[in-house]
Amino acid sequence: MTTSSIDRFLGATPILEDVPIGAQSELQWPERIQHLSATSIGMFRRCPEQFRHRYLLGEKERPGEGLVVGSAFHEGVEYNYAQKIQSHEDRPTAEVVEYLQDVGVPKVLEEQGGADEISWDSNDPVKGVDLLRRDSERILIRYHEDVVPRIQPISLEEKLFLSDPRLPVDIIGYIDLRSGYELELDNQSQWVPDRVIDTKTGKQSVSKLKPSWMLQSTIYGAMTGLPVEYHSISRAKVPKITTGLESVDLVHMPNPVQTENVIKSAATIANMIAWLYTTLGPDETWPTMGRFADWSMSFSPCNNCGWRKVCPAMEGEL
């Protein structure tokens, strides 16, 4: 670094001097971004350059094996829940498994552009599809028999909005399931919502909320005013399932203070997005924060990024 560049750095000169930091009236919001979500906010927080590729350029990463297994599992669960909203009865396990294999798995593969477009751990699409079928069926059977009977769904994949004048766009979320219980009022039965349920599949089952789930749970709680319960399901040969029944640490209660803090943080991140868009535009490289992860993280976000090969921060290392 030359002396002049050090002086410029220490002087904190903005990238474009006619767009000073904090001049919100001069900032431009990218028209392509019509809303924010827990996923997009988390991605910007992790690495603005990754956010630029995904949300400004519209590029998509190849989905990983774990994602498609979880998606197929959800297809089977929703097939049963969709009719249970009215019937209050579960389909037989064999019928749900048949739907998973005949409809759910092919649907997920088609949505991802085919088996060749998925990043399989084995790097073999044939082996990957076989694993997809086996793993999704195994965890679906366990969940359908051990957990589903005690749940009464009220709505599925409900789209919700969180609006605030401090935000340039709404924050949206899709909740897996809103469950409820039966209440007798004036000699009439009424089903009342009691919580939001979100299922997470992974290599291991966890008994506490992951930090990456906290933003989502706070937003869902603010949108619904309901507790948010996570069901953590492992893909082990003998799947382990942990719900709020086994661990109260998987239940997030709505909290107005946390809601206010999340909105303030989201508004600050929105200002940062607008500033980078105004100063650098959509085509220049944005800060590659993921390359220098927070010291408390036990892994590098770059390991799971689909744009490593074109990222200047990784040049010479791949």
Task: Describe what this molecule looks like in 3D.
With about 325 residues, the protein is of the alpha+beta class. It is about 40% helix and about 15% strand. It contains 8 helices and 6 strands, in the order H-H-H-H-H-H-E-E-E-H-E-E-E-H. It has helices spanning about 5-10, 40-45, 50-55, 65-85, 95-110, 125-145, 210-225, 255-280; strands at about 155-160, 170-185, 190-200, 230-235, 240, 250. Strands 1, 2, 3, 4, 5 and 6 form a 6-stranded mixed sheet that branches. The model is unreliable at about 1-25 (pLDDT under 50).
SSE pattern: HHHHHHEEEHEEEH
In round numbers, the mean pLDDT is 88
Strand content: 15-25%
The radius of gyration is: 22 Å
What helical percentage do the residues reach? Answer: 40-55%
Structure summary, number of beta strands: 6
Biggest sheet, in brief?
A: 6 strands, mixed
**Which structural class best describes the helix and strand composition?**
alpha+beta
**Shape estimate:** globular
Would you summarize the structure shown here?
Helices cover 41% and strands 16% of the residues. By secondary structure, the protein is an alpha+beta fold.
What keywords describe this structure?
8 helices; alpha+beta; 318 residues; disordered N terminus; single chain
Give me the secondary-structure topology.
Blueprint (H helix, E strand, L loop, with lengths): L2 H8 L27 H9 L1 H9 L8 H23 L5 H19 L13 H22 L6 E10 L8 E15 L2 E15 L8 H14 L3 E7 L6 E2 L8 E2 L3 H25 L38
Parallel strand pairs: 3-4
Antiparallel strand pairs: 1-2, 2-3, 4-5, 4-6
Helix pairs in contact: 2-3, 4-5, 4-6, 5-6, 7-8
